[in-house]
Write a structure and sequence with these properties.
Number of strands: 5
CATH architecture of one domain: 2-Layer Sandwich
Number of helices: 3
CATH class of one domain: Alpha Beta
Order of helices and strands: HEEEHHEE
Largest sheet: 5 strands, antiparallel
Radius of gyration: 14 Å
Shape: globular
Helix content: 25-40%
Distance between the termini: 40 Å
Bound molecules: guanosine-5'-monophosphate, zinc ion
Strand order of the largest sheet: 1-2-3-5-4
CATH topology of one domain: HIT family, subunit A
Strand content: 15-25%
Length: about 120
Amino acid sequence: MAPDPAPHEDCLFCRIVSGDVPADVVHETPTTVAFRDIEPQAPTHVLVIPRHHQPDAAALAAAEPTVLVDLVAAAASVAAAEGLGDGYRLVLNTGPAAHQTVFHAHLHVLGGRSMGWPPG
Ligand code: 5GP
Ligand code: ZN
């Protein structure tokens, strides 16, 4: 088994996982942490992240595929707790052209309003 990836000292989301940076945590599992986005784009906007540092979803899929499943399962738990029975959107911005700004993989959970399509 590959060794656990080390936290990156200069990574904001690693620092949220370690508790060095405060966040409004709404859900935790052994492999994931979910917290409210600081700049919400919908009535519910939660980020679900792996505890281990991986730069994006593709890297996470390659290194720890089961944790990608854990992110989606955690998102479903968050959506249920937030009363998003009518539906919600999951977003994995990957790369700068897709507006990824934090390079620690994170799954956006958005809901509580109708979501336009196609996305902007
Ligand atoms: P991205 O644009 O990389 O897909 O998403 C990064 C998200 O992280 C953005 O929606 C942004 O608002 C959120 N974010 C950035 N800094 C912080 C922070 O310090 N705390 C929290 N809770 N969210 C943050
Ligand atoms: Zn990180």
